[in-house]
Amino acid sequence: MDNSEIKVILSERGKELANVGTFKYRFIGSIKKGELLKWRCTKNNCTAMIYSGPDKNIVIKSSGQHKHKGNSPNKLERQVLRENCKRRAEESLSTQPLKLIRSELLNK
Fold first, then answer.
1. How far apart are CA 89 and CA 83, in angstroms?
2. DSSP track, 13-56
């Protein structure tokens, strides 16, 4: 899993999640004065962790094993679409919801 590409997405609460393949990781903290960022799997019983650089684009190191199946690509895309629609709805209160959804689908 080392040198895998990270895609940063937002959670329902607006926090950053690292998406690597079919697994999502939440940010834990920085190590070695900000040189490495530590991410842990979003499933509570899972011990898998990854470490990235401060630019959050490549996995430098990984540890632990996943004890569960990964998410489907459709589920991840649906989460990204839903969160983007929520953010845009908060920014422009007068725009109709259907118009926001259509524009997000076209931007995809």
1. 10
2. TS-EEEEETTEEEEEEEEETTTTEEEEEESSTT---EEEE-TT-
In the chain, what are the helix, strand and coil shares in percent, each to the nearest 5? 30, 30, 40
CA distance 60 to 1: 9
Q: Which long-range contacts (CB under 8 A, 24 or more apart) does 29-37 make?
A: 30/54, 36/60, 36/61
Token digits of residue 24: 């999502």
Which residue type, as a one-letter code, is found at position 74?
N
* Tens place of pLDDT per residue across the chain (108 aa): 667 888 888 887 888 899 888 899 999 998 877 789 999 999 988 999 999 988 888 888 889 989 888 888 888 888 888 887 787 777 777 777 777 777 777 776
pTM: 0.75
